[in-house]
Amino acid sequence: MKEQFNLIVTTRRGEESEACSEVWSILRDLGDEEPVVERSPVSGLIFVWTRLNPFKVVEKFREILRRSPWELRYTSRVIPIERNVPTDIQAIKQAAMELVGKIAPGETFRVTVEKRFTNLRSMDIIRAVAEDVDRKVDLENPDKIILVEVVGKVTGVSVLRPSDILSVKKELREPLKP
């Protein structure tokens, strides 16, 4: 399993190989000559390491989806990851604290935990991460999300806007924006 990734891509179970090829090809077209795209130990989950800015990659995938949706046949979601740490509550908290400056005074936040292959409890992670964040919590409509993606022994952490995650199905249901 890759220990470094800056994108997580989800796909339907059983379509991981096709999704890997699709993402690899798009990243090459976007200018990354050597992206690393591989299956994770979890069905439907792909780890990606790109030399491109992962947030810009999400924007480019969104543009591709709007322009020619058939190019994203296997990709379900694209999630930017800013830090990789061992799956340990203190390491996760430290990574989140390094990124929490992205939440401006007056902005709201929530902690979202997606976990696979771990015995850590979501509420323990949320409490540890949120306890030192001096911003107002908004669980329904936050300005920023502290995202914790636990996959076995490695965890990805990001602070992002809800729109920084591309959900293909959700995007296709929304009316086209100019």
Polypeptide structure, described:
This protein is α+β, with helices and mostly antiparallel strands. It folds into two domains: 7-81 and 163-173, 2-Layer Sandwich (Alpha-Beta Plaits), CATH 3.30.70; 83-162, VC0802-like, CATH 3.30.2130.30. Helices cover 30% and strands 28% of the residues. It has five helices and ten strands, in the order βαββαββαβαββββα. It has helices at 16-29, 54-67, 89-99, 122-130, 168-173; strands at 7-10, 36-39, 45-49, 77-80, 83-86, 108-116, 136-137, 144-151, 154-160, 166-167. A five-stranded antiparallel sheet has the order 2-3-1-4-10. α3 crosses α4. It is globular. The N and C termini lie far apart (40 Å).
Number of helices: 5
Helical content (DSSP H or I, runs of 4+):
25-40%
Mean pLDDT: 95
Identify the CATH architecture of the largest domain: 2-Layer Sandwich
What share of the residues does DSSP label as strand, in percent? 25-35%
Please mark out the parts with pLDDT under 50 across 5 or more consecutive residues, or reply none: none
Order of helices and strands: EHEEHEEHEHEEEEH
Kindly report the CATH topology of the largest domain.
Answer: Alpha-Beta Plaits
Major β-sheet annotation = 5 strands, antiparallel
Amino- and carboxy-terminal Cα gap: 40 Å
Q: What coarse outline follows from CA principal-axis ratios?
A: globular
Summed up, the domain count is 2
| Rg value | 16 Å
Strand order of the largest sheet: 2-3-1-4-10
The structure class reads alpha+beta
Number of strands: 10
Q: Briefly, what CATH class of the largest domain? A: Alpha Beta
